[in-house]
Amino acid sequence: MTTHITWLDEVHLGRFAGFGKANCEIGWNWSPPPLVDYDLWYVVAGKGELMLEGRRYPLRKGRCFLVRPGDRPAAKQDPMDRLTVIYIHFSIAEKAGPVQPDALPPRCTDLEDPYFFEMLLHRMLHLLYYEPDGKEQELDYVLKLALLQLYREHARAPDPAIELPRKQKHLVGQLIAYMREEGGRRIPHRELADRVGLSPQYVSAMFKKHTGTSLKQYMTRVRMERAAHLLAETSMNVTQVAEALHYTNIYLFSRQFKQHHGCPPSRFLYKSAPTRTHSGTPQPGTEAP
Fold first, then answer.
1. Same domain, 168 and 203
2. Helix (H) and strand (E) counts in the chain
3. Are residues 178 and 100 in the same domain?
4. Residue 180 CA: distances (Å) to CA of 61, 169, 275
């Protein structure tokens, strides 16, 4: 990938002639004359079809096209699942001769995790819409980051034996993030499975394979970490913490806490360091006995 991206250091990306985020209307289709600039064209939602340079591409969320000068795209949408797209036209100011076509990212890229890429696109739109001055350098940097993401997707190994574990690892990461966001709640396995579109049995096996621990064990660990935080850094007592973490049995809460932290929650509460003022004096009523 390195040999293909060095040209980014030698150019300035700018002259944004057209840009926006569009919820495509009923009856929409796209058939412009040959482009005079580049167009980063990204599907946020919906379905359809795009013809580009003799190839037919299904349109779906997370698919991005780098349409080049001279290209003549033709797109239509599924009327039952209309498109939402982001488009950003730009030009390349070349410092050391024209960019070779084979150095550019391919015309079509599927983003495995579109969140970061969409964040970059929305940042560019914000700059273009709302920042009248001093935006050119940041736009150049952010657009180059977006192009680097396209390169990175194509640099990933296409071998199915490698691809499946990588996708599984990504899904496990999504589950971990969700469990930590919902740190106080015991989340049903069905709810976790629905978030990633898989069966509960498959999710349980996949999670154990990639983390070495079961979903139940990991969820309990997250809840105990949250319990320790609440005891150490809030004024909540043991009963209040147990209730906040949706425990109906205080004895089960205490037993699990001791298994994870080596002492019962009541002793952990007393062992926690007292809150101090900026002068280092303990706040009244917070001294440990």
1. yes
2. 10, 10
3. no
4. 26, 17, 26
Pairwise CA distance, residues 149 & 123, whole Å? 15
Closest CA to 248 of 190, 191, 186: 186
Instruction: Note whether 107 and 88 are same-domain residues.
Output: yes
Count up the domains in the chain and report the number. Answer: 2
Q: What are phi and psi of 83, to 5 degrees?
A: -80, 145
- Helix residue spans in the chain (DSSP H): 2-5, 114-130, 136-155, 160-181, 189-196, 200-211, 215-233, 238-244, 250-261, 265-271
Per-10-residue mean pLDDT, the chain, length 289: 55 75 93 92 95 94 93 95 94 67 84 87 90 80 90 68 68 89 84 89 91 91 90 88 91 92 82 45 42
Model pLDDT, residue 270: 60
- pLDDT confidence of residue 284: 45
pLDDT at 117: 92
